[in-house]
Amino acid sequence: MPNTDWLPAAELADVPPGTAAEAVVGDAIVALVNVNGDIHALDGMCAHQGGPLGRGKLEGCTLTCPWHGWQYDAMTGQQLLSQHIRQRRYPVRIEGGTILVRLSDG
């Protein structure tokens, strides 16, 4: 029986290295980022005012929200100015060129 906890988010080709993309996965908006070939998935709504992180600019491993410039470590979700703010991270795996994200903790 297939594991239905993993949901398709995007094609790997849609998130080339050094870019971010926004995806709707289940009922969540997810920011997909490709840091040197490694895909990471974060809560796609900025903790500041809900800006679309998946439409932000990725430089190295720093993801910048396009609305007000809040910056996060794309690999950990840590906001760069406050140790108290961290975007939720989601597990990611790649199957057949498709990025799969697991929203549940299980």
UniProtKB/TrEMBL annotation:
Molecular function as annotated in GO: 2 iron, 2 sulfur cluster binding; dioxygenase activity; metal ion binding
Keyword Iron-sulfur attributed: yes
Keyword Metal-binding on entry: yes
Family to which this protein belongs: Belongs to the bacterial ring-hydroxylating dioxygenase ferredoxin component family.
Protein name per its UniProtKB record: Naphthalene 1,2-dioxygenase/salicylate 5-hydroxylase systems, ferredoxin component
Lineage summary: Bacteria, Pseudomonadati, Planctomycetota, Planctomycetia, Pirellulales
CDD domains: Rieske
Domain Rieske: 6-101
Cofactor: [2Fe-2S] cluster
Keywords annotated in UniProt: 2Fe-2S, Dioxygenase, Iron, Iron-sulfur, Metal-binding, Oxidoreductase
